[in-house]
Amino acid sequence: MSVSAFFRTLRTSYQAELDDLASDSEGRDVLRKRLAQKRSQMAFLQQMMETAPEMVAVVFHDGFRFESPAVMDHLLTLDSDDLPDWDSLQEAIKLEPWAQALAAPLLAEPTGSWFMTVAVALEYMYHKPTRSPHASDDQSEDDALQVQDARRDKFDADEDPDAGELDHEQAGADWLEEQGFDRKE
């Protein structure tokens, strides 16, 4: 299986977001507390569904049960514009009851179906090991593509720092700054 560039990029940001929420400055595990806090801010967070889906998707951490790994693996190969509607995934995944309550208002939004599909894919990747002892050639190829993409991105940034679109993480940070929050950096 080869993960699309779209999901490879978001995987890193999603992992970083969860890592950031996981512990406080003293190293204590505060993930549950911080996730509960984020879940209580859904009205605010839903504004970022399209620009920074990884920052919003963390509210669904541990909220999905994956019934069909084959469907989920295929989903990870798709680009952002090729994602199926959320309704078409209902046989492949199940939402925990608490997650259903969070998803309902999001699905009423124009980009809600797209966002929920992204969220389930990010959570699936989070729980899926990135490399097993019996890694296939496809996985090795995927790893090589990730390194190649990172090198190309660095080269592009070195050549022209203003080239290309902002990545999702940058867009999210910009949006938060516009709302009056300080940057994490």
Plain-language structure description:
The chain is mainly α and 185 residues long. It has one domain. Helix content is 56%, strand content 3%. It is built from nine helices and two strands. It has a two-stranded antiparallel ribbon with strand order 1-2. α6 packs antiparallel against α7. The longest helix is centred in the C-terminal third of the chain and has 23 residues. 24% of the residues are buried. About 14% of the residues have low confidence.
Q: What fraction of residues sit in β-strands?
A: under 5%
Order of helices and strands: HHHHEHEHHHH
How far the N terminus sits from the C terminus, by CA atoms, comes to 34 Å
Computed structural class: mainly alpha
Q: How can the largest sheet be summarized? A: 2 strands, antiparallel
The strand line-up of the biggest sheet is: 1-2
**How confident overall, as mean pLDDT?**
82
Number of domains: 1
Keywords for this structure?
single chain, about 180 residues, mainly alpha, two-stranded antiparallel sheet, about 5% strand
Show the helix and strand layout.
Layout: H1 5-22, H2 31-39, H3 42-45, H4 53-57, E1 64-66, H5 69-75, E2 93-95, H6 97-107, H7 112-127, H8 137-159, H9 168-178
Antiparallel strand pairs: 1-2
Helix pairs in contact: 1-7, 6-7
Question: What is shown here, in short?
Answer:
This protein has helices spanning 5-22, 31-39, 42-45, 53-57, 69-75, 97-107, 112-127, 137-159, 168-178, and strands spanning 64-66, 93-95.
